[in-house]
């Protein structure tokens, strides 16, 4: 699915034309090649999965792009300054977080995105596996160099879950955030977030934010019954590139708000996207299981729980389950 | 200063004898070499800086080891299970934290110690330089794999400062901990601590704890007037290896207490080692300067400050200066 330089330029021209027809003459002028060459490029693009309509005397018109993630397609029309400054796409790697960490160590700049069509060792929290088959989901990581105070680390997960929620909402699908890092549709997981930081006590130097979204899976292995995909919910394929672009653009907005110190607003928005407040829960954190009532989300993004003895507990992370009514 | 295998064994035998005489015959039996060979090894060790007394009919006796840090000397008599499991000594590297980070990525096990006789790029918090000339200080880093909850990160600095305080106290020198990561003698800095973590929101996977102690410097460059050394305070050279061993042994104790979850005790001990409580201070944290009164250290090791408007602020890290009385 590699495009050559002229083909990439042609794709950009078609994209920039926003679905309207553009004449072959116009294209040949812009590309600086003959009409015959334009025709050859169009043919090649069609072979590679682009659906391009051609109508005599009107020209060409981009109908659909192939459902493969390419740097060209991700960058086409992406209106961000930082996020997506560099985009790396891999067909199959162990995990985008691992690759992103490696690139970050090698000096990759903040805003770099690492995308894989397939993850062979996709991970969730606590080293759990994340099922990430090829060409159906969005498996990607964002590298940022936030220089935020280290105790603001939970905010990286907070903004990411809000960003994904917003992008999915745009498809007309309602979601709930399951504290701290999952996104659910009717109780089933459609997205998981795994952030990793490198920090001193003062600042978070680098963060790798991994995002896995089930997009176009028709079904899931029976061992993960609590997973769902956007396609399963809305009944049709979802364009992964448009979804990714929406996420990157929202990410830039929320990341800027975070950098601007809008902690209170972000926590409020996060709180309102959950259904855990006031509920009786069990939380597994480290080796402990603590039961109690969720009374709040703290200003710093922690879950505040009161146990039956009235003791207050604060959590950054953990596994939360609603308690059965006795 | 490299020792060969037999010389290392001989040094261990002399160390194990705890300053008592051991006969040449005994040594030759244990090493499995001739009396003449033993004499040759003793001569070599003396050339390398070991002071070994020999008395006819009584044998040999270790008086003093060279003031060079070697793996053999660090491990001789070190009674720890985890900390110092592996010891790496470098004559001159940029910074022990950088080297430790590199080793940790390569899979170095928790408990590994990285020591340098000289750091050419020693660093303090926020990328500040740390003056670390050769053969006078203790510049080293400890790699741990703590699997502690991420919001316990401040405790790594807390235990390290308590450990260094205790080891220096054993020399009969009083110190104060300057929040969050310096150790002062009469207002001058004798030790700095720089910890770095790699973490997910759940757990700290790896921590690199860098410790720099001014031990035997006679003086400091005029541009760092607020530094002091143990030698400047007590008037004589301090054995760096013994000090290091004391620190490693205390570190293991405190690290175990931390792993056991003795957070409250550790914070209390830390609080009592500072003189900042109740004082009016300015704190520079990130781009902000906040002034107020230090009212407490939180259960989680944060500095709690009340500003003139009565707002509470919590800090993990920052630069604190006492306010001048108006």
Q: Please count the helical segments of chain A.
A: 9
CATH-defined architecture of the largest domain in chain A = 2-Layer Sandwich
Q: Roughly how much helix do the residues of chain A carry, as a percent range?
A: 25-40%
Element-level helix/strand string of chain A? HHHEEHEHEEEHEEEEHHHEEEEE
* Count of all domains of chain A: 3
Taking the alpha carbons of the first and last residues of chain A, their distance comes to: 57 Å
- The assigned structural class of chain A equals alpha+beta
- CA radius of gyration of chain A is 22 Å
Average pLDDT rating of chain A: 91
Do you know the CATH topology of the largest domain in chain A? BirA Bifunctional Protein, domain 2
Uncertain stretches of chain A: none
Shape of chain A: elongated
Biggest β-sheet description of chain A: 8 strands, mixed
State the CATH class of the largest domain in chain A: Alpha Beta
Largest interface: A-B, 30 and 28 residues
Q: Describe it for me?
A:
Two copies of one chain form a homodimer. Chain A is α+β, with helices and mostly antiparallel strands. The first copy, chain A, has three domains: 60 residues, Winged helix-like DNA-binding domain superfamily/Winged helix DNA-binding domain (Arc Repressor Mutant, subunit A); 201 residues, 2-Layer Sandwich (BirA Bifunctional Protein, domain 2); 43 residues, SH3 type barrels (Roll). In chain A, 30% of the residues lie in helices and 29% in strands. Chain A contains nine helices and 15 strands. In chain A, the strands form three sheets. In chain A, strands 3, 4, 5, 6, 7, 8, 9 and 10 form an eight-stranded mixed sheet that branches. In chain A, strands 14-13-12-11-15 form a five-stranded antiparallel sheet, with no helix packed on it. A two-stranded antiparallel ribbon of chain A has the order 1-2. In chain A, helix 2 packs across helix 3 and helix 6 packs across helix 8. The termini of chain A are far apart. At the A-B interface, strand 6 and strand 9 of A face strand 9 of B.
């Amino acid at each position: 699915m590699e495009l050559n330089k002229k083909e990439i330029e042609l794709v950009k021209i078609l994209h920039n034309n926003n679905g309207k027809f553009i004449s072959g003459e116009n294209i040949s002028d812009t590309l600086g090649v003959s009409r015959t060459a334009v025709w050859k490029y169009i043919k090649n693009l069609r072979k590679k999965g682009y659906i391009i309509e051609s109508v005599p005397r009107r020209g060409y018109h981009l109908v659909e792009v192939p459902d493969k993630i390419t740097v060209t397609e991700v960058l086409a029309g992406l209106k961000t300054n930082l996020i997506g400054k560099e985009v790396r796409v891999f067909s199959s790697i162990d995990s985008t977080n691992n690759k992103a960490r490696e690139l970050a160590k090698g000096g990759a700049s903040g805003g770099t995105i690492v995308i894989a069509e397939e993850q062979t060792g996709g991970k969730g929290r606590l080293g759990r596996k994340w099922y990430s088959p090829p060409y159906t989901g969005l498996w990607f990581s964002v590298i940022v160099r936030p220089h935020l105070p280290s105790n603001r680390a939970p905010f990286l997960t907070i903004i990411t879950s809000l960003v994904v929620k917003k992008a999915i909402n745009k498809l007309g699908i309602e979601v709930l955030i399951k504290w701290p890092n999952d996104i659910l549709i009717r109780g089933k997981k459609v997205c998981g977030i795994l952030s990793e930081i490198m920090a001193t006590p003062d600042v978070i130097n680098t963060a790798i934010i991994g995002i896995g979204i089930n997009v176009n899976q028709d079904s899931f292995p029976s061992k993960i019954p609590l997973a769902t995909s956007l396609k399963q919910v809305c009944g049709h394929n979802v364009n992964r590139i448009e979804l990714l672009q929406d996420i990157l653009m929202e990410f830039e907005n929320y990341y800027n708000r975070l950098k601007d110190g809008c902690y209170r607003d972000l926590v409020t928005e996060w709180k309102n996207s959950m259904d855990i407040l006031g509920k009786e829960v069990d939380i597994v954190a480290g080796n402990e299981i603590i039961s109690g009532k969720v009374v709040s989300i703290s200003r710093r993004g922690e879950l505040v729980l009161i146990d039956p003895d009235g003791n207050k507990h604060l959590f950054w992370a953990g596994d939360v389950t609603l308690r059965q009514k006795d």
